[in-house]
Amino acid sequence: MGLLLFDEVEVLDACGPFEVFSVANRVVARSGAQPPFEVLLVSARPEAAEDDDAAPRVRARGGLRLGADVRVDDAPTCDVVLVPGGVVDVVAANTAVLAWLQRCRPGAEVVASVCTGAFVLAAAGLLDERPVTTHWEDLDDLRTAHPDLHVVGDVRYLDHGDLATSAGISAGLDLALHLVARLESPELATATARQMDYAWRDA
Fold it and tell me: Which positions fall inside the DJ-1/PfpI domain (predicted)?
């Protein structure tokens, strides 16, 4: 599972789904079974920055520093890809990121976005005629930037099997729990939401 990180990523967009998959792993591990999710944190920085240490890092919105496992140039293709939102103008024009997404797309079980991550998927040419969504504040901007897309609001997420998009910020938790249900089991998703003390809106 590849989770993209980039400068000005929205903290909950990225860390919320990470927490969902992490907690799901812990719930499974309690039963003695093998945790089902391996999350690879992929930095959008294709090369080391001067302030990078051994681990590639990004600065999320609000200044939170997040470490990644691998830079995008070295990232493998992944079975599940999740692109969070935030301030996405730079990352949506990052040719290394777009190339990685395009490499992942043919073999991925699902490529998904949270919030304005939909702009990155659109820039990579991965969205099609099926309905997509994003943060309520950015619906019109997505329609303007990509007039061929069928952009809808008033939904928490949309899952078309191989492609999924969610509304803003906290909706990424709902999408991630939905993916746990879909990829593993509804029972695990319910147990994960309960462990997180989160009122899951599975819509």
Answer: 3-181
* pLDDT given for residue 45 in this prediction: 81
Q: What is the 3-state secondary structure (H, E, C) of the chain?
A: CEEEECCCECHHHHHHHHHHHHHHHHHHHHCCCCCCCCCEEEECCCCCCCCCCCCCEEECHHHCEEECCEEHHHCCCCCEEEECCECCHHHHCCHHHHHHHHHHCCCCCEEEEECCHHHHHHHCCCCCCCCECCCHHHHHHHHHHCCCCCECCCCCEEECCCEEEECCCCHHHHHHHHHHHHHCCHHHHHHHHHHCCCCCCCC
d(Cα 154, Cα 135) in Å, to the nearest integer? 10
Q: What is the pTM of this model?
A: 0.94
Can you tell me the distance from the alpha carbon of 183 to that of 132, in angstroms, rounded to the nearest whole number?
21
User: What pLDDT, on a 0 to 100 scale, did the predictor assign at position 55?
Assistant: 65
Phi, psi angle pair for 167, to nearest 5°: -70, -160
Asked: is 2-195 a CATH 3.40.50.880 domain? The reply is yes
Residue 39: pLDDT band (50, 70, 90) is very high
Tokens 């928490």 appear where? 156
Active site residue 115: yes
Q: Which of 15, 78, 104, 115 is catalytic?
A: 115
